[in-house]
Specification:
Elements lengths: L2 H9 L1 H8 L4 H27 L24 H30 L5 H26 L4 H25 L7 E2 L3 H27 L16 H28 L4 H26 L4 H23 L2 E2 L10 H10 L1
Antiparallel strand pairs: 1-2
Helix pairs in contact: 1-2, 2-4, 3-4, 3-6, 3-10, 4-5, 5-6, 6-7, 6-10, 7-8, 7-10, 8-9, 9-10
Length: 330
């Protein structure tokens, strides 16, 4: 490497890498998927922190204690769990960074895809700061709820990027009529409301996130839980109705399959929800319910994204089917 190359790498490392590396479309898709998987995993580990009462295992931020950057042996299991969740944020950053580099290096250059990667980066950074605030204010339930909502926004952007990595940059073409698209937007809105009320259920419920006395939302937990269940049934009903509408209008398999997937995930999530309610919220089931919440959100967005297509042959970017055909001929 020459001195000029070194200077160019320092000035603009992404452009330097892009000039010397062209990832395959499959690599770009895998990078986007890795970022999505990590955004879901951070939900699961964050749930483990709450459900094990480790939310204040590291009592301050950005250090773990006033005198130590890392958890110490005296802090026990709670400190290790909380510090481990903090460290996983760096793995998430690495996955998002890989997605950004892969999108930036794709040929031809895909500005929209790269921006989706950067959007994830800034959400991760802002949510890390918010997570620090959560610790500094002693797990205030409103900040905890905001922390989860920000993670849901990260999952949304990661899901869109994963889907866009599988498409071209051609103008989207709708696969269904306007009335069907409006029904799906109602479904998305109901899902957003379901997630928001779910954070209130958590904020008012018994799992405060730490064994010490932690502030809770001053609401009747039973009533909020019943509202959450009603919203869940609304989402299930809308999904069921959407599937019948799609069958009636002879919609393509893409939207039908994504709607079927959402319905099955909702059923599994509903079973977990009712079982945990009638068994006094065992930690394992609550953790599974948090994972299910992320999967429901992803499946809902995939239904929305399946309502249009972007043909690959318009700009020459091969899609998954084209790549498979090339591989077969080879």
């Amino acid at each position: 490497m020459t001195r000029a190359d070194a200077l160019a790498a320092v000035r603009n490392p992404l452009a330097f890498i892009a000039a010397r590396w062209t990832p395959t479309p499959r690599t770009v898709r895998r990078a986007a998927l890795a970022a999505l998987v990590m955004s879901v995993l951070i939900v699961v580990t964050g749930g483990a922190v709450r459900l094990t009462g480790s939310g204040l295992g590291c009592p301050t931020w950005p250090k773990c204690t006033d005198d130590s950057l890392t958890a110490t042996s005296e802090m026990g299991l709670h400190g290790a769990i909380e510090f481990g969740n903090r460290m996983l944020t760096y793995v998430l950053c690495a996955a998002v960074g890989w997605a950004i580099i892969a999108a930036r290096s794709a040929k031809p250059y895909r500005r929209g895809l790269t921006r989706l990667g950067w959007a994830q980066f800034w959400i991760v950074m802002s949510n890390a700061v918010l997570g620090g605030i959560v610790v500094l204010v002693g797990l205030n339930p409103y900040t905890v709820a905001a922390h989860f909502v920000a993670t849901s926004a990260l999952i949304a952007v990661a899901t869109v990027m994963w889907q866009r990595a599988r498409e071209s940059d051609a103008a989207p073409r709708p696969l269904v009529g306007k009335a069907v698209r409006q029904l799906v937007w109602f479904l998305v809105a109901a899902s957003v409301l379901l997630i928001l009320v779910g954070t209130v259920v958590t904020g008012a419920g018994p799992h405060a996130g730490d064994s010490s006395e932690v502030e809770r939302m001053p609401l009747d937990w039973e009533n909020v839980t019943k509202l959450h269940a009603v919203l869940a049934w609304i989402v299930v009903t809308l999904t069921f109705a959407l599937w019948f509408v799609l069958k009636a209008v002879d919609a393509p398999k893409g939207p039908l399959n994504r709607t079927r997937d959402l319905f099955l995930i909702l059923l599994a999530q509903g079973v977990i929800g009712y079982v945990q309610y009638f068994t006094d919220l065992p930690e394992v089931l609550v953790g599974l319910h948090m994972l299910g919440s992320a999967l429901v959100w992803i499946a809902t967005l995939r239904v929305l994204l399946a309502l249009r297509e972007r043909p690959h042959d318009e700009i020459g970017i091969p899609g998954p089917a084209a790549e498979a055909a090339v591989g077969t001929r080879a």
